[in-house]
């Protein structure tokens, strides 16, 4: 258990203030113990996956932050992969490929954990985690462990019932299909090339900042509004992909959020389209 721990190094944006307490449990039992610690001290607590789709404000986070990045155990039974919530979804897509299992190729470039993918129904290149999710084991806010079939998760675009019910994802069953290794590998190499050629991976970022507005593409709207390269402090609208805001030079969360609001306001004024944030914003100002 760490006190007053900086969260910058644990987020993809490399932005964020400290957590009052930080725990990185290696087992489900130690995760439960961390929650008990917070309850006994009567302090708030929250789960943070691998920090890929989150922006932590400069004031940090009150209470206890529990990182799931060490909960990474996985096993395979026939065409089913059973994996703990903290495992990187990219690595699980590679595991599936190595076992000649198809269905998870779309996730080969998603920079998030398996639990985070369930939390927000992560997707890319025409695939979503809901397409391969068989069941999810969660810890409820009452401290009960439940195994839920995928239809209980109410998956929709970048959403699930996990955050609405304050569930903690512990383990996920992914149901795939037998495939052909060369074909799976070729598809993953193609998607990796597309990602690396189009996305600004050379700078820290949270990925796509905005959800896709109905009938439009956020990046195209931002580009057409002449906002590429716009910068506030150390935060910049990427010159490579307008849907990304990158931490170009020691940006603060305030820089980032000021730029988000500037983009939203400009796109609204020019095209009368509301851009809704996809990135989660948490913490104290």
UniProtKB/TrEMBL annotation:
Pathway in which the depicted protein is active: Cell wall biogenesis; peptidoglycan biosynthesis
Its annotated compartments are: Cytoplasm
| UniProt-annotated catalytic positions | 158, 208 (proton donor), 278
Q: Which reaction does it catalyse?
A: UDP-N-acetyl-alpha-D-muramate + NADP(+) = UDP-N-acetyl-3-O-(1-carboxyvinyl)-alpha-D-glucosamine + NADPH + H(+)
Write out the entry's keywords from A to Z.
Cell cycle, Cell division, Cell shape, Cell wall biogenesis/degradation, Cytoplasm, FAD, Flavoprotein, NADP, Oxidoreductase, Peptidoglycan synthesis
Q: Which Gene3D superfamilies match?
A: 3.30.465.10, UDP-N-acetylenolpyruvoylglucosamine reductase, C-terminal domain (3.90.78.10), Uridine Diphospho-n-acetylenolpyruvylglucosamine Reductase, domain 2 (3.30.43.10)
- Kindly report, in one word, the top-level EC class recorded for this enzyme: oxidoreductase
* Domain called FAD-binding PCMH-type: residue spans: 14-179
Keyword Nuclease (UniProt): no
Q: Which domain of life is it from?
A: Bacteria
Which Pfam families did the record assign? FAD_binding_4, MurB_C
Gene Ontology MF terms in the entry: UDP-N-acetylmuramate dehydrogenase activity
EC numbers for this chain: 1.3.1.98
The UniProt function text for this chain reads: Cell wall formation.
Describe the family membership recorded for this protein in Swiss-Prot or TrEMBL: Belongs to the MurB family.
Tell me what this protein is called: UDP-N-acetylenolpyruvoylglucosamine reductase
Kindly list the organism's lineage.
Bacteria, Bacillati, Bacillota, Bacilli, Bacillales
């Amino acid at each position: 258990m760490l006190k007053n721990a900086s969260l910058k190094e644990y987020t993809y944006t490399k932005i964020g203030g400290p957590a009052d307490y930080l725990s990185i449990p290696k087992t489900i039992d130690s995760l439960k113990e961390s929650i008990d610690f917070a309850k006994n001290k009567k302090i708030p607590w929250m789960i943070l996956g691998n920090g890929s789709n989150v922006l932590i404000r400069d004031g940090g986070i009150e209470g206890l932050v529990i990182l799931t990045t060490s909960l990474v155990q996985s096993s395979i039974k026939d065409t089913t992969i059973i994996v703990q919530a903290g495992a990187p979804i990219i690595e699980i897509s590679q595991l599936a490929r190595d076992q000649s299992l198809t269905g998870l190729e779309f996730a080969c470039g998603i920079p998030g954990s398996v639990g985070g993918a369930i939390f927000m129904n992560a997707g890319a290149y025409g695939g979503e985690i809901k397409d391969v999710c068989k069941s999810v084991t969660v810890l409820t806010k009452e401290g009960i462990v439940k195994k839920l079939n995928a239809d209980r998760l109410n998956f929709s675009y970048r959403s699930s019932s996990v955050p609405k019910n304050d569930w903690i994802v512990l383990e996920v069953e992914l149901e795939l299909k037998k495939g052909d290794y060369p074909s799976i590998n070729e598809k993953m190499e193609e998607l990796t090339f597309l990602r690396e050629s189009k996305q600004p991976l050379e700078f820290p970022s949270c990925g796509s900042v905005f959800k896709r507005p109905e009938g439009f593409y956020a990046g195209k709207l931002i580009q057409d509004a002449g906002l590429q390269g716009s910068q506030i402090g150390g935060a910049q609208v990427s010159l490579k992909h307008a849907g990304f805001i990158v931490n170009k030079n020691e940006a603060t969360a305030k820089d980032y959020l000021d730029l988000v609001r500037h983009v939203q306001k400009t796109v609204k004024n020019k095209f009368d389209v509301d851009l809704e944030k996809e990135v989660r914003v948490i913490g104290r100002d």
